[in-house]
Design a protein that fits this description.
- This protein is α+β, with helices and mostly antiparallel strands.
- It has 2 domains: 3-96, Thrombin, subunit H (Beta Barrel), CATH 2.40.10; 125-194, no CATH class.
- It is built from 6 helices and 7 strands; from the N terminus they run H-E-E-E-E-E-E-E-H-H-H-H-H.
- It has helices spanning 3-6, 88-96, 125-141, 145-163, 169-178, 185-194, and strands at 9-14, 24-28, 32-35, 47-51, 57-64, 67-68, 78-86.
- A 6-stranded antiparallel β-barrel has the order 1-2-3-7-5-4.
- Helix 3 runs antiparallel to helix 6 (185-194) and helix 4 (145-163) packs antiparallel against helix 5 (169-178).
Protein backbone atom coordinates (compact mmCIF):
# COMPACT_ATOMS: atom_id res chain seq x y z
CA UNK A 1 0.00 0.00 0.00
CA UNK A 2 1.45 3.41 -0.97
CA UNK A 3 1.73 6.28 1.50
CA UNK A 4 -0.43 8.45 -0.78
CA UNK A 5 -3.34 6.01 -0.47
CA UNK A 6 -3.33 6.44 3.32
CA UNK A 7 -3.68 10.23 3.08
CA UNK A 8 -7.49 10.31 3.27
CA UNK A 9 -7.97 13.47 5.38
CA UNK A 10 -8.24 17.00 3.97
CA UNK A 11 -6.36 19.66 5.94
CA UNK A 12 -5.39 23.32 5.68
CA UNK A 13 -2.48 25.02 7.43
CA UNK A 14 -3.29 28.38 9.07
CA UNK A 15 -0.23 30.58 9.70
CA UNK A 16 -0.12 33.24 12.44
CA UNK A 17 0.10 36.03 9.80
CA UNK A 18 -3.26 35.03 8.30
CA UNK A 19 -1.92 32.96 5.38
CA UNK A 20 -3.86 29.79 4.65
CA UNK A 21 -2.57 26.87 2.60
CA UNK A 22 -4.47 25.15 -0.16
CA UNK A 23 -6.26 21.95 0.82
CA UNK A 24 -3.77 19.13 1.39
CA UNK A 25 -4.19 15.36 1.72
CA UNK A 26 -2.92 14.01 5.05
CA UNK A 27 -3.48 11.29 7.64
CA UNK A 28 -4.84 12.71 10.92
CA UNK A 29 -4.34 10.64 14.09
CA UNK A 30 -5.21 11.58 17.70
CA UNK A 31 -1.73 12.96 18.51
CA UNK A 32 -0.09 13.15 15.13
CA UNK A 33 -0.67 14.29 11.57
CA UNK A 34 1.22 12.78 8.64
CA UNK A 35 1.64 14.94 5.56
CA UNK A 36 3.57 13.34 2.68
CA UNK A 37 4.48 16.69 1.14
CA UNK A 38 6.95 19.50 1.72
CA UNK A 39 5.00 22.03 -0.36
CA UNK A 40 4.16 24.19 2.67
CA UNK A 41 6.29 25.38 5.60
CA UNK A 42 4.84 24.19 8.90
CA UNK A 43 6.12 25.70 12.14
CA UNK A 44 5.35 25.26 15.84
CA UNK A 45 2.04 26.92 16.86
CA UNK A 46 0.63 26.84 13.33
CA UNK A 47 -2.94 25.60 13.23
CA UNK A 48 -4.08 22.61 11.20
CA UNK A 49 -7.76 22.50 10.27
CA UNK A 50 -9.27 19.18 9.22
CA UNK A 51 -12.50 19.23 7.23
CA UNK A 52 -14.56 16.13 8.02
CA UNK A 53 -17.02 14.42 5.67
CA UNK A 54 -19.85 15.10 8.17
CA UNK A 55 -19.38 18.86 7.68
CA UNK A 56 -17.50 19.40 10.95
CA UNK A 57 -14.05 20.89 11.43
CA UNK A 58 -11.31 19.87 13.88
CA UNK A 59 -8.47 22.21 14.76
CA UNK A 60 -5.03 21.13 15.95
CA UNK A 61 -2.09 23.19 17.21
CA UNK A 62 1.33 22.09 15.95
CA UNK A 63 3.67 21.28 18.84
CA UNK A 64 6.49 19.87 16.70
CA UNK A 65 6.42 19.95 12.88
CA UNK A 66 8.57 16.80 12.65
CA UNK A 67 9.92 17.50 9.16
CA UNK A 68 11.83 14.64 7.53
CA UNK A 69 13.90 14.90 4.36
CA UNK A 70 13.30 12.51 1.45
CA UNK A 71 14.84 9.03 1.68
CA UNK A 72 15.29 7.49 -1.73
CA UNK A 73 12.50 7.31 -4.32
CA UNK A 74 9.87 5.71 -2.11
CA UNK A 75 9.89 8.17 0.79
CA UNK A 76 9.41 11.85 -0.19
CA UNK A 77 10.14 14.75 2.16
CA UNK A 78 7.29 14.83 4.66
CA UNK A 79 5.98 15.90 8.06
CA UNK A 80 5.22 13.69 11.06
CA UNK A 81 3.65 16.40 13.21
CA UNK A 82 3.04 16.19 16.93
CA UNK A 83 -0.15 18.12 17.59
CA UNK A 84 -2.64 19.02 20.28
CA UNK A 85 -6.34 18.94 19.45
CA UNK A 86 -8.03 22.20 20.43
CA UNK A 87 -11.50 22.43 21.90
CA UNK A 88 -13.98 25.04 20.63
CA UNK A 89 -12.98 27.87 23.07
CA UNK A 90 -9.26 27.26 22.40
CA UNK A 91 -9.86 27.17 18.64
CA UNK A 92 -11.74 30.48 18.66
CA UNK A 93 -9.01 32.10 20.77
CA UNK A 94 -6.23 30.76 18.50
CA UNK A 95 -7.98 31.89 15.31
CA UNK A 96 -8.70 35.34 16.78
CA UNK A 97 -4.96 35.81 17.40
CA UNK A 98 -4.18 35.46 13.68
CA UNK A 99 -3.03 38.75 12.14
CA UNK A 100 -4.49 39.66 8.75
CA UNK A 101 -2.41 42.05 6.63
CA UNK A 102 -4.70 43.97 4.29
CA UNK A 103 -4.28 46.91 1.97
CA UNK A 104 -6.40 48.88 -0.44
CA UNK A 105 -9.57 50.89 -0.09
CA UNK A 106 -12.22 49.57 2.30
CA UNK A 107 -10.56 46.19 2.91
CA UNK A 108 -11.74 44.34 5.98
CA UNK A 109 -12.16 40.92 7.57
CA UNK A 110 -15.19 39.95 9.65
CA UNK A 111 -14.94 36.72 11.60
CA UNK A 112 -18.45 35.89 12.81
CA UNK A 113 -19.09 39.54 13.67
CA UNK A 114 -21.15 42.47 12.45
CA UNK A 115 -19.25 45.27 10.73
CA UNK A 116 -20.29 48.64 12.14
CA UNK A 117 -17.26 50.51 10.89
CA UNK A 118 -17.17 53.69 8.83
CA UNK A 119 -14.49 53.85 6.15
CA UNK A 120 -13.04 57.06 4.81
CA UNK A 121 -11.00 56.83 1.64
CA UNK A 122 -8.78 59.78 0.89
CA UNK A 123 -7.40 59.43 -2.62
CA UNK A 124 -6.85 62.39 -4.86
CA UNK A 125 -9.61 62.50 -7.54
CA UNK A 126 -7.07 63.34 -10.28
CA UNK A 127 -4.99 60.34 -9.28
CA UNK A 128 -8.05 58.05 -9.25
CA UNK A 129 -9.12 59.34 -12.69
CA UNK A 130 -5.67 58.82 -14.18
CA UNK A 131 -5.39 55.31 -12.74
CA UNK A 132 -8.77 54.51 -14.35
CA UNK A 133 -7.46 56.04 -17.61
CA UNK A 134 -4.37 53.79 -17.38
CA UNK A 135 -6.57 50.71 -17.11
CA UNK A 136 -8.67 51.87 -20.07
CA UNK A 137 -5.58 52.49 -22.21
CA UNK A 138 -4.15 49.06 -21.35
CA UNK A 139 -7.44 47.42 -22.36
CA UNK A 140 -7.58 49.47 -25.59
CA UNK A 141 -3.95 49.12 -26.69
CA UNK A 142 -2.82 45.67 -25.59
CA UNK A 143 -4.22 42.62 -27.38
CA UNK A 144 -2.65 39.82 -25.33
CA UNK A 145 -4.71 38.92 -22.24
CA UNK A 146 -1.54 37.77 -20.46
CA UNK A 147 0.21 41.10 -21.10
CA UNK A 148 -2.94 42.99 -20.09
CA UNK A 149 -3.04 41.12 -16.78
CA UNK A 150 0.65 41.83 -16.15
CA UNK A 151 0.05 45.54 -16.81
CA UNK A 152 -3.04 45.57 -14.55
CA UNK A 153 -0.92 44.11 -11.72
CA UNK A 154 1.51 47.00 -12.13
CA UNK A 155 -1.39 49.49 -12.07
CA UNK A 156 -2.70 47.83 -8.88
CA UNK A 157 0.75 48.30 -7.31
CA UNK A 158 0.79 51.97 -8.41
CA UNK A 159 -2.64 52.46 -6.83
CA UNK A 160 -1.36 50.74 -3.68
CA UNK A 161 1.46 53.30 -3.48
CA UNK A 162 -1.05 56.17 -3.56
CA UNK A 163 -3.21 54.40 -0.94
CA UNK A 164 -0.29 54.00 1.46
CA UNK A 165 0.52 56.56 4.15
CA UNK A 166 3.99 57.28 2.70
CA UNK A 167 4.14 56.54 -1.03
CA UNK A 168 7.66 56.10 -2.41
CA UNK A 169 8.56 58.17 -5.48
CA UNK A 170 11.37 55.70 -6.31
CA UNK A 171 9.00 52.70 -6.21
CA UNK A 172 6.38 54.62 -8.17
CA UNK A 173 8.93 55.59 -10.82
CA UNK A 174 10.07 51.95 -11.15
CA UNK A 175 6.47 50.75 -11.50
CA UNK A 176 5.60 53.40 -14.10
CA UNK A 177 8.73 52.50 -16.11
CA UNK A 178 7.61 48.85 -16.07
CA UNK A 179 4.33 49.71 -17.83
CA UNK A 180 4.07 48.97 -21.57
CA UNK A 181 5.28 51.88 -23.70
CA UNK A 182 2.23 52.29 -25.87
CA UNK A 183 -0.02 55.24 -26.70
CA UNK A 184 -0.65 57.67 -23.86
CA UNK A 185 0.34 55.22 -21.10
CA UNK A 186 3.70 56.98 -20.62
CA UNK A 187 2.15 60.45 -20.34
CA UNK A 188 -0.44 59.22 -17.80
CA UNK A 189 2.40 57.63 -15.83
CA UNK A 190 4.35 60.93 -15.93
CA UNK A 191 1.32 62.79 -14.57
CA UNK A 192 0.98 60.29 -11.70
CA UNK A 193 4.65 60.77 -10.84
CA UNK A 194 4.10 64.54 -10.50
CA UNK A 195 1.28 63.89 -7.99
CA UNK A 196 3.73 62.66 -5.37
CA UNK A 197 5.95 65.06 -3.50
CA UNK A 198 9.65 64.76 -2.78
Amino acid sequence: MSFASMMKDKIKVLKSDGQESVELSASVQSKGIYLMSASVLIEPNDLIQRKMSNGGTETFQVLDPGFHEAMGRNMPAHYQMKVKKLGLPETEKAIQSITYNLNGNNTRVNNDSTDNSTNIVNINNDVAEHIAMLRDEIKRLIDSTEKQNEAYEIVDAIEGQFDSAKPSKTVLNTLINALPSAGSIASIGSFLLTCIGG
